[in-house]
Amino acid sequence: MPELHEKQVNNWCSIPVCPKDFNLFATLNSGQAFRWISKPTDNEWHGVINGKLWRLRQIDSSKPVEYYTLDKPTNTRSDLTDIPSDLFDYFRLGINLSDLIKEWCIRDEWFTSRFSDASSTDTARGLRLMRQDPVETLFAFITSANNNLTRITKLLYKLCSLYGDPLYLDDDGDGNVGNWTFPSLEVLAQPKMISELQNIGFGYRSKFIVQAADWLLKNGGKSRLYELRTIPHSEAQAFLTQIPGIGKKIHFYTRMMDSKPNKKFKDMMHHVTSTDLSE
């Protein structure tokens, strides 16, 4: 395992995960999330997790990911038990990616050709599957219909900057805005939002966003979406397909997740691994 940084230097704390198992650029630039703001000159990203602004960086691909904090470390250990729970959960740091890759390579030679230690095409190595806020994920999913990554990012940026709460880079709220919270269901469910969303470019998706927010408020709200993580897959799928703007599209993806790796899955992985995700 490569040598890690000191635990805390100038308010930056290292996350004790091997860089081969956590590449920040590959993860945040993979199309999973759309609202992390990149500061390329500092190798830094600003994003929102559980309503809080986080600053993350990775100096280069051989160094561990770091997070910025004004708090003093609670202990002197440099292990995952010392990582803030928001980051631990969001990036699923309890999952050992190297172990998974070894298992995949044993089961399928296709993975061996791309992710073995001898492979030169593992540009997606260190890309982690994130556990994101379910409300934001759902509305990003609706926004993604017949859309591309650049436009999805711009639309969600507009949405949050207009209807979310600003989060500042300093504690007193007088500095630069680092990002915004995602608008609440109550805000999105207002009938007037249909025309307002159309005005900022959401087009036909506008009515689905408002209808989905209204439906969710009447069917358990945000807490119900969190509960879907713990109930049987079929039950969660049945709930999601009732939401306006979701329907059969989510059914297709959940069916794919249920199935064993197949040609469609490999084609998607080929797209990721053949794309240069390095800086």
From TrEMBL:
One GO CC term, this protein: nucleus
Segments forming a coiled coil? none
Looking at the record, the residues that make up the 8-oxoguanine DNA glycosylase N-terminal domain are 15-138
Q: Name one GO molecular function term.
A: 8-oxo-7,8-dihydroguanine DNA N-glycosylase activity
Transmembrane parts of this sequence: none
Gene3D superfamilies, per database record: 3.30.310.40, Hypothetical protein, domain 2
Ordered alphabetically, the record's keywords are:
DNA damage, DNA repair, Glycosidase, Hydrolase, Lyase
**One Pfam family matching this protein:** OGG_N
Q: In its UniProt record, which GO terms are filed under biological process?
A: base-excision repair, AP site formation; nucleotide-excision repair
- The lineage's top-level taxon is Eukaryota
What SUPFAM superfamilies is this protein classified in?
DNA-glycosylase, TATA-box binding protein-like
Record protein name field: 8-oxoguanine DNA glycosylase N-terminal domain-containing protein
* Naturally occurring in which organism (per UniProt): Trichobilharzia regenti
